[in-house]
Write a structure and sequence with these properties.
Layout: E1 10-11, E2 15-17, E3 23-25, E4 33-34, E5 45-48, E6 51-54, E7 59-60, E8 63-67, E9 81-85, H1 100-103, E10 113-114, H2 117-127, E11 131-134, H3 143-154, E12 159-164, H4 170-177, E13 182-186, H5 194-199, H6 204-216, E14 220-227, H7 235-248, E15 255-259, H8 274-286, E16 292-295, H9 300-303, E17 305-306, E18 313-318, E19 321-325, E20 359-360
Parallel strand pairs: 9-11, 11-12, 12-13, 13-14, 14-15, 15-16
Antiparallel strand pairs: 1-6, 2-3, 3-4, 5-6, 7-10, 8-9, 8-20, 17-18, 18-19
Helix pairs in contact: 2-3
Length: 365
């Protein structure tokens, strides 16, 4: 792999020249059409002369080691440490963004540090961190950088995780997810108005992405829905969404209902009550989904993985803290031998050597 100088503009992929002389970015459904010097809505894909460039390749907004449960992923190497990194910008415009200081940043020169794919891979290897997550902002907009990191990490048997809204066109989607070992994709709402009004986007491309990842890749899939009071938390909407997941994706895709807190441009309502999350979880279970969780709250019942057959607790969690894991030796329930969907380590994995708390990683050259 040819590695460019980290701080230099990187040639972007997935674009074409239109008949009127503009460059159209073909990465996501926005299809931004740019004159020379213009940037797309994501702020990071920019026209320079007759080409499109990615101006955040190799520039990280920060690297931190977290528990994998924080992504959230509950069925992918539970208890493992994961290196989390992002850049700047986003291709959605969510009024409720919880990372808006990063996703809405237009100043890419103030990103935390330079980090090449090889440096990231070697840092993980040195720390015995088996996973890397592309998160904080959406990795779709820095897909070339994420794919380069994934290739470097795979050489050291380090897995890649995409935490994304799944707002991406089919061709780049196919290329991007072939490098991802796992993904948590946001399904932000399931009514016709939610995406246009609160995200300046559309629902269908997200549904298409979910179906593609589940049925046409080897990438492990989990789904997150941030429940926002009076926006996407009605019983009929939750029921319809869970029925779609059951019918289109199957009963074994883990679903996370997480709590909203007032932020960015949506400060006119309170945080999500725990009872709302618990009700949504029960609705999903009643619709036939096997693995449903609550998040961003203390809820031991909602954080625990139960066997779908014998109903006994197998992986006990409270928020991101894992206190019991009976699946360390494989995917079978030790009580009834039911096969639990997911990727579970064959030996104990624990991020406690890092003190049980997230910590920032500084790349040294």
């Amino acid at each position: 792999m040819n590695t460019p100088i980290a701080a230099q503009p990187y040639p972007a992929r997935w674009w074409h020249l239109t008949e009127d002389g503009k460059i159209q970015c073909d990465l996501c459904p926005r299809e931004c059409k740019l004159n020379d010097g213009q940037k797309g809505l994501c702020f990071v894909r920019e026209r320079q002369g007759s080409a499109l460039i990615l101006n955040t390749w190799g520039k990280s907004s920060g690297l931190c080691v977290d528990p994998v449960e924080k992504k959230p992923l509950n069925h992918y190497h539970p208890g493992s440490p994961i290196l989390s990194l992002g850049t700047a910008g986003c291709n959605l415009a969510c009024k409720f963004c919880q990372n808006w200081d990063i996703s809405k940043s237009r100043d890419t020169d103030k990103l935390g540090q330079i980090a090449t794919p090889e440096q990231i891979a070697l840092s993980c290897k040195k720390l015995s961190v088996p996973l890397v997550a592309y998160t904080y902002n959406d990795p779709v907009i820095f897909a070339e950088y994420a794919m380069d990191i994934a290739q470097a990490c795979h050489q050291h048997d380090i897995k890649s995780v995409a935490v994304t809204a799944g707002y991406i066109h089919p061709q780049p989607r196919q290329e991007f997810f072939q490098y991802m070992d796992a993904a948590n994709i946001d399904l932000k709402g399931f009514n016709k108005d939610f995406y246009p009004k609160l995200c300046a986007a559309e629902l269908q491309p997200v549904l298409d992405c979910l179906s593609y990842v589940k049925h046409h890749t080897k990438c492990w899939l989990e789904i997150t829905t941030l429940l926002i009071p009076d926006a996407n938390d009605s019983v009929p909407e939750i029921k319809a969404m869970c029925l779609w997941i059951y019918q289109e994706l199957g009963d074994d895709v883990p679903l996370h209902f997480t709590a909203f807190h007032p932020d960015y441009k949506l400060r006119d309502r309170g945080a999500t009550p725990v009872a709302t999350l618990q009700l949504a979880r029960q609705i999903a279970i009643d619709q036939g989904l096997k693995y449903v969780y609550t998040g961003n709250v203390h809820d031991r019942q909602g954080g625990t993985t139960f066997c779908p057959e014998c109903k006994k607790p197998l992986i006990v969690r409270d928020w991101h803290n894992l206190s019991q894991n009976l699946l360390r030796s494989g995917n079978q329930c030790p009580h009834c031998h039911c096969v639990i969907s997911g990727h579970f380590p064959t030996r104990p994995v624990d991020w406690q050597p890092f003190g049980g708390r997230r910590f920032a990683l500084k790349i040294t050259t």
